[in-house]
Amino acid sequence: MTAVDPVRWRVVGRDAGAVVVVDLAVDLVEQRRARLSEADWVAEASTTPTAVRWVWSDTTRWYAALLADGVEIARAHDLRLCHAIVRASTLVPASASEALRAEARWDAAPTDTSAAAPSPRGPALFDLDDGEALPVGVPDGIDDVLAEFLRQQAAVAASNDPGRLRLLLAAESAGALLAAELHAAGVPWSIEVHEGILEAALGPRPPAGTAPARVQEFAAVVRSALGDEAASLDSQPKLLRSLHRAGVLARSTSRWELAEYDHPVIAPLLAYKKLTRLQSANGWAWLDEWAGDGRFRPVYVPGGVVTGRWASSGGGALQLPRQLRPAVRADPGWTLVVADVAQLEPRVLAAMSGDLALAEAARGRDLYDGIVASGAISTRADAKIAMLGAMYGATTGESGRLVPALRRAYPRAMGLVDAAARTGEGGGAVTTWLGRSSAPGDAQWREVQDRAGGPDASDADRAHARRSAGDRGRFTRNFIVQGTAAEWALAWLADLRASLAALPPVSDDARAEASGPVFSQRAHLCFFLHDEIIVHTPKEQAEAVAEAVRQSAARAATLLFGGFPIDFPLDLRIGPDAAKS
DNA sequence: TCTACAGGCGCG
DNA sequence: AAAGCGCGCCTGTAGA
Prior knowledge:
By secondary structure, this protein is α+β, with helices and mostly antiparallel strands. The chain has 22 helices and 15 strands.
C-alpha cells in the first residue's frame, strides 16, 4: 500500500451514532481509530493543526454544523465532489477508475441539510426529468468513506497526471468549505439602502397583493396607449394579442424585440416590465426572506455546473442585479475589498493553448485593447464580440464574421477551441486544464447521429442530427475555457482563504462591531461570482487584504500555468459599498 | 389542484 | 441589439 503523506489525512465517518475518525498518520498500515461523541468531535476538529486534511463524505453534510459550533476547517477532501471529477476525467485510464465507477452510491446529490427533520432518512429519491432518480446523500459510514478515499487515491495515482488532478481535487474541496462559510457569513446588506432603491423606483411599499404605485401608473399609460383599458400586461400571449391589435406586430414580447418598434406603447411598456421585474425578483418580499437580518445568505452549490462553476440554489446569488449592488455595505468600522478579473476566460485560453501572441496582447492591459493594438481587429468593441464568438461558437451575425480574423491572428488559441468543438460534434469528451472532463454524447444523442447516417434517413433526421452535433460542439468548445477559468478562480479563492485566515488578529474594536460566526470576526470572503469576490474586512486591514487578493491571483496563475507569461489583472476597489463607481 | 414547461430576464 | 456558452427564479399557461 502506498504512503498517503505528505499530507496528514483524517477520515471522518459515522458509525452507530458516533463520529469515527481514522487518522492515516504516515502509512495506511498505521491507521488509528477514535470514536468520538459529537462534542468531542467538535473539540477535535477545532484544535486540529491547519496542515491536516479532513476527508469526509460531503462537506455540506458535516461543515454547517461545525461552523455553527464555531469550528473552522482549514483543509478538506470532499469525497462526493472528488468522486464526480475522478470518475469522468479522461486523465484517468478506464481501468484505473473502474472500481470507483462501480460505486453508484457516490453519484448522489448533496446531502440535504436544510430539511427540518433529521436523520432517519430512508432512500430519499430526487426525481430527474427523464424518470430516473438520483438518491440524495452519499454514504457517510466510516468504512464506506475510507474505502472510497482509497479508491480515489488509487485512481489518481494511476492517472496520466496525478499532480494536476490533486490540485483540482484540493481546489474543489477548498471551494466546498468556502461555500459553506460564505453562506454562514453572508453578504453585509443594508436594508435601508435596499428599501431606498425600491422606493425610488417603485414607490412606497404596497400592501401585500397589490402592485406598487409606480407600476400601476405605468400600467395605466400602457393600457391607454394600447387603447384597451382591460389589457392584461402580465400574460405573454394576451399581451402579444393586445400589441397586435394596436399595430405592433412583434412575434415575442421580449425587451430587445419590442425596442425595435416605434409606437407610443413601447417606452411605458418597457418601463413597466423593468419595474415588475425588480418587484418580483428583488422586491420587499425578497428582502424580507433573504436579507432581513442584514446579511444576504445565498446557498452556493460547488461543482453545481458541469463545467465546474458553482451553481446556486435559493436567493439568486448568480443574478444579483447591479442595480442592488449599493445595498452591499460594510459594517461600522469595517470595509469591503471588491475584486474581479478582467477578461478571465480569454486569458485562460491564451495560457492553456500556449498562445504567446494572445498572451502578449493581454499582458499588462485590457486584452481587447491589446488585440486592437496587434492590428488583428480594428475596434475594442469588435475585438470583444469576436472573442466571445470564438469561445461560444458563434457562426452568424457580426460575431461570426469577425471570428476568422481572430483565427488568423491567434491560431493556437483558436485551434484549441476549434478542436474542442470538433470533439464535441463527434460525441467525444473534452477536458479542462486540470482534468475535469465533460460527459461524452449519451446514447440518445448517439442514436440521433446514427439515424441520420443511415440509408433511410430523412432530411429532417439529418437536420436534427446536424443541429444536435452543433449544439454539443458549442458546449464542448466553451467547456474547456469556462471550466479552466473556474479552476483558476477556485485556486485564487483557496489561496486567498488561507491568506486571510493567517492575517494577524484584529483589534477588539473591530471584533466588537462584527457579528456572525467566529471566522467573521476577522477579514473574510463574503461573496463569490465566477470571477469576482468581495472580502468583508476591518478597515485597519483593508490594505493588507487588498495585497493578499493580488498575491493570490498571481499565485493562482503560477499554480496552474507555471512560468507561462500570462497575467490576470484585477479591477480592485476598497470602500464601504460594493457598487462599481 | 398540482406539476411541468415556456417565456422572459437577471448574472458571469 | 443578439449572436454564441453556462446558470436560477418568477410568472402564467397547459396538461394531467
